[in-house]
Amino acid sequence: MAAPGGLVAVTVTAHGRGLDVDAFDALYAGSFKRLVAQIYAMCGNFAEAQDCVQEAFVRAWDRRRSLDPDQSPEAWIRTVAYRLAVSRWRRAQRALGLADRSQLPDGLAEPDPSRLELLRALRQLPPDQRRAVVLHHLCDVSVRDIAVETGVPVGTVKARLSRGRTALAALLTICEDEETDG
């Protein structure tokens, strides 16, 4: 909930500004679905994305008094969720060998074919390029903010975006060619 007048209530602590319970609730309500969609685009598994975002919010709750609302707590949560997804994927790869992440459980409605093609193409990009492309084009995060969030120079982000877009264009063209041949 926002404070009267539409302001977000913050707590001032010895460590700086933090989020009070109402501000944290507003952050959760306003960003959970968006973060799940973003992490899903990065990892390709909706249930895993939900779990990772939920876990990231649990961790954020424990740190809410030190999360500065001016320093994009949503970006912090997205970064934690992404790292959780990567860690879980690596753990699963070690435990099960190569997992077939493309299998959907029975009973789900079929998704839009163009989204499936985009997700398949995104999965073929190197993880750093995929993350940059998703953050910039699907999450509308600026190049500078991606650099801060990922801990790399702006030039590296620009190179990842350029290479990722080029690879995506080629992959999506291949998908279109296969559709017209079939």
UniProtKB/TrEMBL annotation:
Residues 34-94 form the RNA polymerase sigma-70 region domain. Keywords: DNA-binding, Sigma factor, Transcription, Transcription regulation. The keyword Cytoplasm does not apply. Residues 116-168 form the RNA polymerase sigma factor 70 region 4 type domain. InterPro entries: RNA_pol_sigma-70-like (IPR039425), RNA_pol_sigma-70_dom (IPR014284), RNA_pol_sigma-E_actinobac (IPR014325), RNA_pol_sigma70_r2 (IPR007627), RNA_pol_sigma70_r4_t2 (IPR013249), RNA_pol_sigma_r2 (IPR013325), RNA_pol_sigma_r3/r4-like (IPR013324), WH-like_DNA-bd_sf (IPR036388). It comes from the Bacteria. Pfam families: Sigma70_r2 (PF04542), Sigma70_r4_2 (PF08281). Belongs to the sigma-70 factor family. ECF subfamily. This is SigE family RNA polymerase sigma factor. It comes from Microlunatus aurantiacus.
